[in-house]
Amino acid sequence: MTPSLSAYLLVAAALLSIAGLVHLRVDVTFESFLEKDDPVLIAYEEFAATFGRRRKDTRSLCITLVLLAVLVAVLTQVIGDNMARAFGLVGALSIVRFRTVVEDTADTAFVIFAVTLGMAVGAGYAVLAAICLPAVAVVAIVMNNYDRQKENG
User: Fold this and answer.
1) Any idea what DSSP says for residue 123?
2) Sign of the alpha-carbon torsion through 33, 37, 38, 39
3) Is 63:26 a contact under the CB 8 Å cutoff?
4) DSSP readout, 51-69?
5) What distance in Å separates the CA atoms of residue 113 and residue 77, rounded to the nearest whole number?
6) What is the pTM of this model?
7) What is the spatial distance between Cα 53 and Cα 147, in angstroms, rounded to a whole number?
């Protein structure tokens, strides 16, 4: 069974959208959804002042989500209608999840990437794995360049 045209189109669309995501700024903080005088926001601000808060980098998260969309599309093509592959994926990801300490969202995506490539090659979809590898490499390069820019300025 060969990958469908929709899988190739999804990979191409994800790669094209990554260029725009590097400059995307999205405010998904809790505070952005509430009015300034909202009692919930006031209570949250008091709690955050007492116990601290962590700021996450939303651009890195957006790039990771695009990468995960590509990986899920590839996994869907690899699994197809084979229940054994589906349960194998669940088992592999659960083992990886409980054995790996993940501190960054990108780390999770690359763990899933390794499982995806392994399943694709093992199931006989070497062409799909060969397409997925450069797509993920482009995302990794974009993420690396973004991290360097963030450190320098």
Assistant:
1) T
2) positive
3) no
4) H------HHHHHHHHHHHH
5) 14
6) 0.57
7) 22
